Amino acid sequence: MKRLFALWRTVAGQDLRLLWFAIRHENRPGWLLPGLAGLALFALEPANFALPVLGAVDEFVLVPLILHGMVSMLPAQVVDGFARVATGRRRRGR
């Protein structure tokens, strides 16, 4: 179970940082905000509480896959901007 949490934190964490950057980017696609709102509703739906096993599959498999799919559909200029900001942060941190 610890490995599953570590994998989720690593994979989804980078995607979440990129999506947070994309939300604030001036050239974000029009589908991004409604898509993230839909994903948030999907992750918090009441069926997660009624059917805990399906909720766990939902949270640990489907949500990261959808997040990664959204990241792969982002325009190149947004991803490049994030890469520039991320490398700048790493250089300052050293």
Structure description:
The protein is mainly alpha-helical. Helix content is 83%, strand content 0%. The chain has one domain. It is built from five helices and no strands. The N and C termini lie far apart (33 Å).
Keywords:
94 residues, mainly alpha, 5 helices, transmembrane helix
How are the SSEs placed, and which strands pair?
Elements: H1 2-24, H2 32-43, H3 47-50, H4 52-72, H5 76-93
Helix pairs in contact: 1-4, 2-4
Structural class given helices, strands, pairing? Answer: mainly alpha
Shape by Cα distribution = flat
Largest sheet: none
**Percent of sequence in beta strands:** under 5%
Can you summarize this structure?
The chain is 83% helix and 0% strand. The protein has 94 residues and is mostly helical.
